[in-house]
Design goal:
Two copies of one chain form a homodimer. The longest helix of chain A has 19 residues, at 294-312. Chain A starts with a helix and ends in a 6-residue tail after the last strand. In chain A, strand 20 (278-282) and strand 21 (285-290) form a beta hairpin. In chain A, the strands form seven sheets. In chain A, strands 7-4-6-5-9-8 form a six-stranded mixed beta sheet, with no helix packed on it. A six-stranded mixed beta sheet of chain A has the order 16-13-17-21-20-18. The first copy, chain A, has four domains: 4-17 and 170-312, MoaB/Mog-like domain (Molybdenum Cofactor Biosythetic Enzyme, Chain A), CATH 3.40.980; 20-42 and 141-168, Molybdopterin biosynthesis moea protein, domain 2; 48-130, Molybdopterin biosynthesis moeA protein, domain 3 (Beta Complex), CATH 2.170.190; 323-399, MoeA, C-terminal, domain IV (Beta-clip, Beta Barrel), CATH 2.40.340.10. Chain A has seven helices and 26 strands. Chain A is an alpha/beta fold and 401 residues long. Helices cover 17% and strands 28% of the residues of chain A. Chains A and B meet through helix 2, strand 15, helix 3 and helix 7 of A and helix 2, strand 15, helix 3 and helix 7 of B.
Chain lengths: 401, 401
Amino acid sequence: MISIDEARTRILARLTPTGAEIVPLSSGLGRVLFAPAIARLTYPAANISAMDGFALDAADAVPGTSLTVIGSAPAGRPFEGRISSGQAVRVFTGSVIPDGADAVLIQENADFDEIRLIPHTTIARGKNIRSAGLDFRAGDNLLSSGTRLSARDVGLAAAGNCPWLSVYRRPIVALLATGDEVAMPGEPIPAGGLTNSNTFALAAFIRTCGGLPIILPTARDDRVVIAQAVESLSHADLLVTTGGASVGAHDLVQEGLGMHGLAVDFWKIAMRPGKPLMFGAMGTLPVLGLPGNPVSALVCALLFLKPAIERLSGLPGAAPQSEFARCTVALPENDRRNDHLRASLVRDPDGGWQITPFAQQDSAMLRRFAEADALLLRPPGASATPPGTMVQMIRLADHGL
Amino acid sequence: MISIDEARTRILARLTPTGAEIVPLSSGLGRVLFAPAIARLTYPAANISAMDGFALDAADAVPGTSLTVIGSAPAGRPFEGRISSGQAVRVFTGSVIPDGADAVLIQENADFDEIRLIPHTTIARGKNIRSAGLDFRAGDNLLSSGTRLSARDVGLAAAGNCPWLSVYRRPIVALLATGDEVAMPGEPIPAGGLTNSNTFALAAFIRTCGGLPIILPTARDDRVVIAQAVESLSHADLLVTTGGASVGAHDLVQEGLGMHGLAVDFWKIAMRPGKPLMFGAMGTLPVLGLPGNPVSALVCALLFLKPAIERLSGLPGAAPQSEFARCTVALPENDRRNDHLRASLVRDPDGGWQITPFAQQDSAMLRRFAEADALLLRPPGASATPPGTMVQMIRLADHGL
């Protein structure tokens, strides 16, 4: 058995980012930049007004004196002439500041009509003016390669006049469920069998991680059928299997994939739930074998599949960020396996978290897992602790689960 | 000017959830349930084995005695007969427990071959058996109406044998940008003008909130053109405008929409950035008028548009959750407007957050805003505070921004 960190390191080391494709700006959300987004313009392009008011020479803003309003410069229609002493031009938020002006007097600080302006206040040079290039200049690197684009980032690329983005192609993740007892929802269920829930939870999770899931037909517990199921996966960047990965006689996934030359890197991890996790490759196709129990499968997906998809997407790929919480109950000594207790969270009045592990931790109980807020992390060999001890935890919703 | 909370309350009061549509389970991620997901089966359907091993009568597990292995019951192929005293059946994780057995001895705790089993240990009744209905029973409400479906929830609906889900239709949000100075990215830009960034940032943000954005052609600063732009919006659930909402002469959005009978509910909020926010309705179509400055537009979107989309989607719609952070710098006294300072976050060694507001807070600086981690919240009339004071903040990435 190897540690979680070693397993993740070995998985990430075997993965190569997909490569570039061009997408329209409006499809950029959540994508990872392959090439940086470079500003194609300077913003603001010229000195512009930050307010509605009057552009003038700051020296002319003498309370009670009268200035001549020589024109108006709506945003998008700059004033053509030049302001001389004693003159002002009507401007609005975003208007280009006319030559000869060096400040904007806001309209609330003046009496005015179409032709006259009487300031109520003096004004400092540069006041209410946004200088050309205040936010960025043409040629600036607005968003670096390897950035996962937020809504703000998409807006920034638009502001920089980038209608197209070069992003990493979304990794295609083929999902293979195995098992004679497994039926697709809505289809006939074998005696004592169950519906395939792992595939649907994993496909949804893969989407939240930025991957494109492909659901392969469920394979019977037969090594030849399993081998046939994975024959045409040249389009996939990763194969994920569920089920068939424990030590029983019906663990045929490794045998089936072995007919295509599966080279197993490792297949046991010192963790609970999820010990029987397999990683290897069929030729150049990396293969991640998840346990069959739904909770085990999803906890392993969080710890290994998510970083793998991130690495394929052009990101580094890292362990999910853990946080502190105060445990409300006593915890027993832990054995040598990393434990991940399903738990509920409540906010402390001081803004911290209180965490309470569920009494039942059965890895087949998906309903209970769907209700969990967090995984409480118990490192190998952790001592017994009294109630109120600070622990580390991972918030599930924060990680797309 | 009204408060943020009053504005949000008035917006939410005017919105009605969209209504139901049926989607396949595999499209359920992120959708909000209209009808609850009811379990169509009991899981486990029968008592099943939690391990690979041997099903037997617990009383027969006497170390050193020999039992007869009378068959095998792979998962999905239950053993037909009944176990008598002195007999055992080979089982695997998920196998139905045969009649007459009440425990599973794991294979690591026995010597065995095809026909003989010699236990190394005694075993408690019920050990390594998952009882029928342990996770849920047919007819159970697995996921309530109004639940936004996570990856785990999608898996749970699959486990409950629900191939279709009844969800709220995604709200359609029409986006109208106005302004003579505004060009679409990649198209010719007017003198002193800029590209339309708000629409792209907002469209992406609307997607993260669960809405479907529709980008209307940009309207010139002309009330008739604006009126024409919004003539055919019977398919929309909400109209969002950007720009044209301040007090200047070129604030034509209200006039243009007024030609379709816009009834304004309010149009000024005691907040910074974002004071000129407008809300009203054209007939039955609610209208949210966002400020033109990109930072103002997005902060207002976070505080008002997100809850609005949530309400339209069948959720309650609430203020974004704020958190505690320790401010690293002194803060001046605040005026009567709620302030939202763009800020960076660093983790404390103790797991808390340290927050540092940016020195420049210009609401036109989208690049700086794209780099921000959080909004530091300053309530109206807040006193000046020394460095190290605890403040409230909203983490931007957590809210899809």
